[in-house]
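Module 6 notes. Inverse folding takes a fixed backbone as the condition and produces residue identities as the prediction. Think of it as a translation problem where the source language is geometry and the target language is the twenty amino acids. Below is one complete input and output pair. Work through it position by position during the lab.
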């Protein structure tokens, strides 16, 4: 197979531009000078753009997305889980566009923004059955070669409080989803241990990962972290359990943060950090020093519940850095790492530096320095997945 030579590329913001040679889906070489041309080489001049590993989106809800639909006027005022449940059910009832169509429109945006790995949660409930799962399985197949799409069967309305949801989660696993999810085991279902029994039981039976949304805060949230860590260790599932929206990590004492961070790190549990308007962001620098695996997630994707969310993980890094009041370049660069290399580590993916032998999952974008592109995210100049250019200047392209 012929090579693609990405010339005038500033790898990870290096001052000196070089050339990245890509062949058969992997990086063949990274050099300061162009390699000797070979017949059939295709040269793509990046004009000094910064080249980074492709972004990792560890938490989105593509099935809920109304991307591409007419704007919906939102009127609910109460910010609560019960209100979100009401809005979710109302959206299911009112939306006629197939979930595969809406999800694909949103995920195409994610890819154009540079996400080469995406985890999406897909609602499962007696009210809708497996229609969302079936739609996203179709999308996952259609998007092979554009992004690695991982699907989590997710009990968005609760598990125990909606009888029959456990059977639907199992049916979703039989259809081939990648992970099983849980939601607020104590706060929503009111019986945390029973929900953990079901979710971990399904994961063990089908050999899949587990991913909990965990909005419980304070002492209850810390208790849940300990219980989930115990299950993870007992089942030997280090590296296969992750948590989203862990509100209890957002504002604990330094001593408690150290305890919880150590507990997560020792159990091998990853955290997808959410950036929510009403809540503080966890002390990600301390959690990283404690050894906690972390990534970022785009979370909301313009649903009836929330107008926010465009699938841009770099913008999430910007919001996180802003809420943490990161000023130093090293802190801004850490926010970028969470979107790239740390995100890959959190999901056990091969590293992308990029260097020879790495998967050619890359994103190129204009900018003078790494800190600058976090503070003011530019349009992505080029996105490459497995050695194929899949997007240019913020839009998908035909096979290149």
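Target side of the pair, the amino acids:
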């Amino acid at each position: 197979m012929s090579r693609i030579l990405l010339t005038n590329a500033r790898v990870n913001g290096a001052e000196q531009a070089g050339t990245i040679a890509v062949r058969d889906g992997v990086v063949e070489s990274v050099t300061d000078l162009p390699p000797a041309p070979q017949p059939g080489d295709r040269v793509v001049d990046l004009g000094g753009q910064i080249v980074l590993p492709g972004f990792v989106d560890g938490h989105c809800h593509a099935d809920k997305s109304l991307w591409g639909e007419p704007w919906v006027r939102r009127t609910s005022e109460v910010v609560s889980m019960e209100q979100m449940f009401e809005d979710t059910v109302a959206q299911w009832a009112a939306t006629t566009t197939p979930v595969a169509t809406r999800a694909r429109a949103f995920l195409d945006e994610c890819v154009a923004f540079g996400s080469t790995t995406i985890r999406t949660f897909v609602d499962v409930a007696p009210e809708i059955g497996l229609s969302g799962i079936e739609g996203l399985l179709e999308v996952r197949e259609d998007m092979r070669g554009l992004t690695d799409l991982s699907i989590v069967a997710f009990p968005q309305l609760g598990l125990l409080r909606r009888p029959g949801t456990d059977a639907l989660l199992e049916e979703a696993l039989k259809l081939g989803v990648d992970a099983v999810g849980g939601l607020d085991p104590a706060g929503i279902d009111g019986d945390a241990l029973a929900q953990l029994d079901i979710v971990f039981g399904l994961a063990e039976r089908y050999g899949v990962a587990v991913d909990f949304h965990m909005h419980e805060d304070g002492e209850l949230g810390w208790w849940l972290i300990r219980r989930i860590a115990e299950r993870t260790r007992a089942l030997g599932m280090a590296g296969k359990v992750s948590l989203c929206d862990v509100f209890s990590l957002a504002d604990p004492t330094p001593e408690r943060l150290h305890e919880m961070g150590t507990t997560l790190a020792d159990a091998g549990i990853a955290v997808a950090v959410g950036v929510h308007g009403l809540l503080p962001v966890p002390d990600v620098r301390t959690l990283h020093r404690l050894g906690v695996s972390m990534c970022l997630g785009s979370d909301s994707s313009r649903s009836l519940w929330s107008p926010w969310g465009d699938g841009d993980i770099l913008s999430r890094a910007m919001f996180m850095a802003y809420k943490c009041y990161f000023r130093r370049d090293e802190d801004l660069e850490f926010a970028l790492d969470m979107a790239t290399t740390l995100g890959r580590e959190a999901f056990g993916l091969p590293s992308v530096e990029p260097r020879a032998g790495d998967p050619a999952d890359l994103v190129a974008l204009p900018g003078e320095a790494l800190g600058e592109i976090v503070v003011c995210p530019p349009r992505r100049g080029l996105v490459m997945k497995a050695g194929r250019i899949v997007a240019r200047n913020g839009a998908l392209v035909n096979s290149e």
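Reference fact for the lab report: The CA atoms of residues 100 and 138 lie 7 Å apart.
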